[in-house]
Every structure is written in C-alpha cells, then in structure tokens.
Write a structure and sequence with these properties.
Number of strands: 13
Order of helices and strands: EHEEHEHHEHEEHEEEHEEHEHH
Protein name: UDP-glucose 4-epimerase
Largest sheet: 7 strands, parallel
Strand order of the largest sheet: 3-2-1-4-5-6-11
Family: Belongs to the NAD(P)-dependent epimerase/dehydratase family.
Pfam family, one: Epimerase
CATH superfamily of the largest domain: NAD(P)-binding Rossmann-like Domain
Organism: Oscillochloris trichoides DG-6
Number of domains: 2
CATH architecture of the largest domain: 3-Layer(aba) Sandwich
Radius of gyration: 19 Å
C-alpha cells in the first residue's frame, strides 16, 4: 500500500506515522509544511526506506496531485489546528483548512485514491445546550477554526456525493499526549515543572480529553470501516472540569505551580462532552475509565 499522511510531522500525525511503521502498513509519504510540525518528531524514521518525508504545503494544489499519485489511503491531518491561532490569522486558517482540504480531496479524485480520512473537530458544534453531543447536532461553530473544519466536512461530503470519493470523517475531542504544545495540558505541565503559574482562562470549562493513542487507533480503523457518510466523535465520553485537571497537575510529584486566573476567552467553547456511541458501535473502540490516565506518564 501507498499511504499519504498530511501533517505527519505534527503532534497526532507523527504518532500515526509511528503506528503505521510498526504495523508495516506500506510505503508512507509524509507531507508537512513544518510550520507547526517538527522534523524531530520523525527523526526515528530517517533511515527507513519506506518513509518519505516531503516538505510541502497542502495549499499547493499541483504538488498535492503529484504526491498523491498511486496512493491507496490519505490521512488528512494538516491544518491550522490551534483555535487562537486560527482567530489571529484568519487568512491562513482559511487557505489551509478549507482550500488545502479541497486540494487534498481533488488530488484524491484525480488519482483514484480509495479513501480519505479527514480529521475534523468537536469545534464544529460550538456551544451546545445538551451534553453529551451527538453527531446529528447541527454545525454552530463559535470560532474560525470550527468554521474551517465544518467547511472541510461539507467539501468532503460534496466529493463523496458528486465524485464518489470515499471520505471518512472523525471529529476529535481534546487530544493530549507527547509532542503536543501550545495547548492546556503541555502548557500546564511545563509551568508545573518550571515553577511558573498555570494560566487559567475562565476556569468553568468542561473538556473531553482523549489520549493520542486512542485517536491513532480510531484513524486506522476509519480507513477501512463501513462509516462513509457517518461522521464519528472520537473522545472519552466524559467531561473533565478544567479545575479538576488543575488539581491533577498540582498533585503530580514535585509539581511547583499555582493557578493564575484570567477572564474567559470569548472564542473558546466552554463545555463539551462527546457522545461516543458511534465510536463504540462502528469502530469498536472503548475509552479508558480515566481519560487522564496518561498524565503521570507525560510528567515522568
């Protein structure tokens, strides 16, 4: 098999590459612009002849068509994946998350790629009245990142309905794990290690945390499962209050930190818990009883 991973030098993408290499899944073409991705995340594969890392931008339609030639599966993870970053640079988030996604879908169509697995986000739902959130809930994005992911999903549906490009959509909750940065868990762990305060915006948030290994397993299963036309939430199905996360960090051995409370940021979704019925029934995945089970592992 020939497998494309866009955003493969990033946080989730590099873990996916690790797993596909371990499984001997086939020839891997890793595409990353290295704006958020880091070459160090893939250094362990530099001598593997089955892993080719290409510094390219998904906004380059011609390059995507060429790189995807002969591919069987595309895992499309490349994106401006930071909510605040998408808000501060609207043009980049649109050109990458929307136009870049169209480029990948068009490359799949022209090259006869069997399936595209598109990583969407819980941000497409925005604020909701009732938890947990089912996949049937309407799009109601609160920020530019959520809007761009909703648009990507709509284009995936168009390419499925119009051109018969198989598109599998997974909507990720708040993923955590090694190699992540600029999000709450890595920021707070770093603060606790360095004796700096943990900055809390608002403090009333309820977040569905999911460990990166579960997300990788979901992506791999989504590449073959009978889920076309059915987006699937990937999460723990549990809501963790943000201040409960803070307590877990404060309780880590040797943690030296305190809370520094700031006003809530209006573009951030305050409460989310995923309904994971489809994840269980269609992908056969069961989350761990403790969503934050790997926190101590990251600290160690």
């Amino acid at each position: 098999m020939k497998i494309i991973i866009t955003g493969g030098a990033g946080f989730i993408g590099s873990h996916l590459v690790d797993r596909l290499v371990h499984d001997r899944a086939g020839e891997l073409i890793v595409i990353d612009s290295m704006l958020r991705g880091r070459p160090a995340n893939l250094v362990q594969h530099r001598d593997n002849p089955l892993v080719q890392v290409v510094n390219a931008d998904i906004r380059d339609a011609e390059a995507m068509r060429s790189l995807c030639a002969g591919a069987d599966v595309i895992y499309h993870l490349a994106a401006q994946s930071n909510v605040m970053g998408a808000v501060s640079d609207l043009s980049y988030s649109f050109s990458t998350n929307v136009a870049g996604t169209v480029n990948i879908l068009e490359a799949a169509r022209l090259n006869g790629v069997r399936r595209v697995v598109f990583t969407s986000s819980r941000e497409v739902y925005g604020e909701v009245d009732q938890l947990p959130v089912r996949e049937e809930a309407p799009f109601n994005a609160k920020n530019a990142y959520g809007a761009s992911k909703a648009a990507g999903e709509l284009y995936a549906r168009v390419f499925l309905n119009t051109y018969s490009v198989e598109t599998a959509v997974v909507r990720l909750a708040n993923v955590y794990g090694s190699r992540d940065y600029d999000r709450v868990i890595p920021l707070w762990l770093s603060a606790a290690a360095q004796g700096e305060p943990m900055i809390v915006y608002g403090g009333q948030q309820v977040i569905d945390f999911v460990y990166v290994d579960q997300v990788v397993e979901a992506l791999i299963r989504a590449s073959t499962a009978a889920i076309i036309g059915q987006p699937i939430n990937i999460g723990s199905g549990q809501g963790t209050p943000l201040l409960q996360l803070a307590e877990r960090v404060l309780a880590l051995p040797g943690a030296k930190t305190r809370l520094d409370l700031h006003p809530a940021r209006s573009v951030e979704v305050a409460r989310f818990t995923a309904d994971i019925s489809r994840m269980r029934s269609l992908l056969g995945l069961e989350p761990p009883s403790d969503p934050l089970f790997a926190l101590e592992r990251l600290w160690g």
